[in-house]
Write a structure and sequence with these properties.
Helix content: 10-25%
Shape: globular
Largest sheet: 5 strands, mixed
Low-confidence stretches: none
Strand order of the largest sheet: 2-1-5-3-4
Strand content: 15-25%
Number of strands: 5
Radius of gyration: 12 Å
Amino acid sequence: MPVVVYVLPSGERREIKADEGQSVMETAVGSLVPGIIGDCGGSLVCATCHVYVDDAWMSRLSSASDYEQDMLECTAAERTDRSRLSCQLECKSELDGIVVHVPEEQ
């Protein structure tokens, strides 16, 4: 089981075991990680699952699709070069231990 590390705005770290193939957003919502809302359930239409991926993990991710790029324009918190929608990040063994930072607002 891959592990996702969520860093909350307070600095608190939550390590959650994820099911293989589940999204980082689904893992957060199912584990009640505060700050990840996922209103659309992963349909790529709401941007309420915005996270900042830790620098050490950015090179391991595939590029954001054009649709994800468009939705990242709608985030409540500032968009950066580390911004991703967690519904588009699949939990898999290659990403075991991925660290994502939850923004202060969604």
